[in-house]
Structures are given as structure tokens and as C-alpha cells.
Amino acid sequence: MGCTSERACKVRVVRRKLVVFVPVSALESVCEALFAAGAGHIGGYERCAWYTPGMGTFLAGEGAAPTIGEVGQERRIGEYRLETVYPTELEADVVRALLESHPYEEPVFDLYELLEPEV
Length: 119
Prior knowledge:
Blueprint: H1 6-9, E1 11-23, H2 27-36, E2 50-59, E3 74-87, H3 91-101, E4 109-117
Antiparallel strand pairs: 1-3, 1-4, 2-3
């Protein structure tokens, strides 16, 4: 399905989505830090997020300093997949808040552009 007009085909990036995997015990503190940095606003709503439980696995290698477990031992731990949005201009603040509040030595996170039509 193609665009019917040039105007309908124009999009802009004004927000991004952060997806991060957080241990169950750290969900609230990470959310609080992200919200304080400006994440979680959608229209007239604040503190917007979505999370679902899952199981994370990892094996800390030599030279790692794992928060949970020991080097050389594979671990499985209950985690949440946490998603929230933020304005692009706050990306540095949001990522800094994530890294400072997340308990893992190497937090796993993704940043996605959210395209919005120009109207």
C-alpha cells in the first residue's frame, strides 16, 4: 500500500522508546529514575510504562564483576521487560538515569525511533 499524497508520506521522529531488561527487585527504582529524567509522558499522561515478566540468563566471564552470581556460573533470574517512551531531546538524560539506576554491570537495552505523521 503506497502513500496517496506527499503530505501523508511525511513522518518525523519526536519520541523514542526505551526497552530494557530489569531484575524484579529493581523495577520500581529504575522506573522512578526514568520518570524523573522525563520518560513516560504520553499526551496528558505521566509515568507511562509497560512491563512483562520473563527469565534472563547469563554467564559472567573472566574480568566481569557480576551483581548477581559468580564468574563462570550460568545464572537464570526473573526479570521484567520494561518499555517506556521519551522525547528525543531527553535521550542523554534518560540513558544516564538508566545506567545510574540499573543494578547490572552491563544493562541490556534498546532505543527505537517512533515515527509520527506530520499533519
